[in-house]
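Fold sample X.
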Amino acid sequence: MNSVSTHAASRRPRFSRANDVWPWLCAASVALSLLMLGALLTLLLVRGLGHFWPATLEEVTLDSGETFAGQAVREVALPQQAGDERLYFTGNQDIEGVRWRWVAIDEIAERTQPDDLIRLDRSPWGDFIGRLVAIEQQGQRWEGDAAWQRLTSLLALPVSQRQDSQLLLTTVDGQTLRQPLASVSSAQAPNAMSVWQKTLAWGDAVWRFLSEGPRAANTDGGVWPAIFGTVLMVILMSVMVTPFGVLAAIYLNEIAHQGRLTRLVRIGVRNLAGVPSIVYGVFGLGVFVYGIGGSLDEWFFSDTLPSPTFGTGGLLWASLTLALLTLPVVIVATEEGLARIPEAQREGAVALGATRLEMLTRIVLPMAAPAMLTGVILAVARAAGEVAPLMLVGVAKLAPQMPIDGEFPYLHLERKFMHLGYHLFDTAFHGEDVQAAIPLVYATALLLVLIVLVLNLTAIFLRHYLRRQRGNEC
C-alpha cells in the first residue's frame, strides 16, 4: 500500500491544475527578457556598426537653384502644414561653418548620386564632401582618374612622406579648397564602390575605431586608449579583490564562530553590495587619493610638490576603489559556494589524518573554485561598466600618456587613464557635435556590452569545466 502511494506521489505533477498558469508566466517572463536583450543588441549592432558602412552621397538641387552634397541621415515627419524634413550630413565645416543641414522635402527639386563625389576624413575640420580636381606633389600635377589613383597610393604611405602633397578640391556649388594631404586620414568615393569594396572599407573603419585614439573632442576617431584602460584597470582590480574576498569568505564560513557577531558581519557585507557606487567614489577620493596619496607625496615625492604624483586620481586609486566596491560580490559568492560543500567531505578528510589547513586547501577550496570564479567574474563585469566612482578617482576625458610604456617602471600606476564607460558618457553628453556623436555612442555601448557578455560567458564555461573536472575526480 505504501509503495503504491509512493509511486503515485512520484508521478504527481509539480503544479496542480489550479496553478497551471504559473509555468506559462515564468516562460513568458524568460521569453520577454530574451526578446528585450535581443532588441537591445540589434539596436546597438545596426546603429553602431552601420555607422562605419560607406554611405551613399547625394547631390541635392533645391527649387531655389541652390546645390549641396551630403549624406541623408534621417527624416522627421512634421505637422501636415509644415511638411516633412530630411537631415543631411554635409561636412565642409571650414567652408560653410556647419556640418548638418535640415531640408524640407517639398523644396527638393532633384536628387542624384554622382560617382565622382568623394568623402575625405580630415583633421581638424572633419569630413569634406565634394569633388577631387587635382593633386600636386613636388611640381607635378595629376587630374581626373590619375589624381584619384595617386591619392589612394599616397594615403597608404606614412604621414611623413605626404608632407609635400596638396589636394585641389571643389564643392558642388563651385567653391575651391586646397587641402594638405598630411592632414587627410582616409578617402572614399562611396557611390562608385562595389559591395565588396564597401565591405573592405567597413572592416577597415571598424579596425581603426578599435585601434586608434579619439579625435575632435571624442566625436571622431577610435577608442583604443579606452579599451586598454578599461582592461588594465579590471585586471588590477581583480588581482586586488580576489585574495581579500576569498580569504574573508573562508574566515566567515570555515574559521569564525557562527554566532551573533558573524551574522551581523554577513548582513553588513550584503548591505555593502547595495551602497550606491558614487559613495565608494567619495570614499576613494578622501581616503585613497587625498589621504594615502597625499602622504606618499610628502614622504617620497616632496621635490615635485605642489604638483601631486599620487595625491591625485590615477589608475591605482581607481582600481582600489572598484576592488572595494566589488568586494561584497566576491565574498557572498565564495561563501555561498563554501556553504554548499557537504560537511561529510570535511569530516572525512580530517578522519583520514588531514590537518585543517590541508582539508581547506585540498578539499574545500577546489570544490568551491566554481563559486569563487563566478564571484570574481561578476565583480569584473560590474567593474567594467562602472562610471560614477571613476570620475572622482582617476578617469580622464583624454589621457595624453598610456599607463604602460617603455620607460621604467613601465607600469605607471599614478597616471590617469581612459575608460569605455566614461568615454560613452562624455561622448553622449559633452560632445561639441551631438549628431556626430550619436553613432559613436551606439558603437561604444555595443563594445562595452560585448566585453561584459564575454566575461560572463567565460565565467559560465569555466565554472562548467571545473564542475565537470571535480565530478570526474569523484
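Fold sample Y, listed below.
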Amino acid sequence: MTTLVHGSDTLTRDALTVLQPGFVGTTAPDWLLRRIGEGLSSVGLFGRNIVDSQQLAALTAQLRAERDDVLVAIDEEGGDVTRLEVKQGSSFPGNYALGSVDDVELTRAVARELGRRLVQCGVDLNWAPSADVNSNAENPVIGVRSFGPDPDLVARHTVAYVDGLQGVGVAACTKHFPGHGDTNVDSHDALPRIDVDLATLHARELVPFRAAVAAGTKAVMSAHILLSALDPHRPATLSPQILTGLLRQELGFEGLIVTDGMEMQAVAATYGIERGSVLAIAAGADAICVGGGLCDEDTVLRLRDALVNAVRTGELPEERLADAAARVRALAAWTQAHRARGAGSVPGAAVQEGTAPGTDIGLVAARRALKVTRGAHPHTPMTDAPYVAAFTPVANFAVGDETPWGIAAELERLLPGTETGSYDESSVADVLAAAGERRIVAVVRDAHRHPWMTEALDGLLAARPDTVVVEMGLNEAEPRGALHIATHGAARVCGRAAAEAVVGTGA
C-alpha cells in the first residue's frame, strides 16, 4: 500500500472519485461499500449483477444507503447489448433498427422508455448511445449497435436518444469518441486503427459527436482506437490531442469524459491498466471505466494508488486529477437533483413489458424496423410448427453469449411444437435430417461476414427452396429464401416481430 504525503486524504478521495469499477454479485460486497464511504463515487453494473428489476432496485438502494450521490452506471444500449434483460433479450430494438426506420420521434420515445426503466431501478448513468458511424460493414464489434453508415442519420438519432434518456433524468454517455465505426478489429482484443485524413474524420466520424455535444450529452466515452491523422502514437483514450484538444477545446464539451473499459486489450496489452489509467486522466479523461473483466477490490486499490503516485511524482498534475473528480461530482449532483425531483417512476416498481403506459414502444419499433422481401419461390404463411436452424457466429465481448437471440421461442409461442437447433459450420445434411418434413426457418446474423453461413444457406435453399431466411444482423447480403426477413438486430422484440411475419400475423 502507498504511504501518502500531507494532504493525501483529498488526493486519495479524488483518485477514488474518478474510478467507475464493477464487482461480482447481486448485492454490494463489503469492500465496495467501504470504498464508497472513502470516496468512490461511481459503480458500474453488468449482466452478472442483475436478476430482475426488484433485485436491481434493492441493489442500487443498498449503494445509496452508503452514499446518496453515488453514480450508478450501466451498459444498457437496448438491442443486442442489454444488461437489464441479459437472460431474456431486450424489450427494445437497438440502434440499427431505429436508424432503419429513421423516425427520430420513435427513437426518442424508445430511449425515454428505456430511461424510465433505468430510473425505476435506481440507475442514473447509461453508457449509451453508440454514435459510431458504421461505415465498415466488416466491423466485428459495432455493426447493429450503430444507427447506420450515414453520418447525418446517426447524428439526428444520437441527439434523439440523448434527449430521451436525459429527459427522464438518466445521464447519456455518447460513445465511442471519436468514432469506432470504420474498424475491422475489436478493441476488446487488439488496437484498431483508422487511417483516413482529417477531412474524412470531420465529415464522417465527428458529425454525430458534434451533434451530441450541442444537444447537451452529459458524458462522452472515449474509444481505444488509433486515429493516425489525429495522434499517430497513442489511442484516443490516452491522447491529449484527441480528448483535450479535439473534444474539449474544438468541440467545446464540458461534461464528463469516461474511458472505455481499461482492461480491454487495445490499452491493457501495451500500457497495463495502471499506467493506462494515469495516461488517460492526464490526457483529459475524467472517469476510468473498469470492471467488465477485472472486478475486485485489488483492481480498485491498484488504480487508486497508481493515480496517487503519479501525482506525487509529478507525472500527473494534481489539479488535473482534482478537475476530473470535480466533473464526476458535478454529474452526480445533476442526477441526484433529478432523483430529488422525482423524475421517472418510483424505484422498485415493476418494469417488465406491458406494465405501464408506453412499455410496448419497443415492440412497435421492432415491427416497424422489419424489412420483408418475397423470393421467387411461392411463400404461404406457416400454420404448422417449423424447424428453426440458427446459424450462430461467435459473439463479440460487448454483446456476450449470455443473452438469447433468434426467433425460435417466439415461433414456439405462436406455433407450439416448433423445434430448433444451433449450427456453426455443420453440414446442411444435419439441418435437413433434423427438420424432416417440416418447413425450415434459417436464422443468420451478419451472413455477409461469414462465408460458412453463406455456404450453408446455398445448400439449404438448393435442397429446400421454401425455406424462410431471417437475418438478425447487418442486412448487407442479398435477400434470399421464399421469404427474407431483415430484423436489423437480434433483440427479443425483433425476434417476436419476425415470428409474426413468418406466420402472417405481422409485417
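Sample Y note: The chain has a mean pLDDT of 90.
Also: Residues 318-340 form the longest helix (23 residues).
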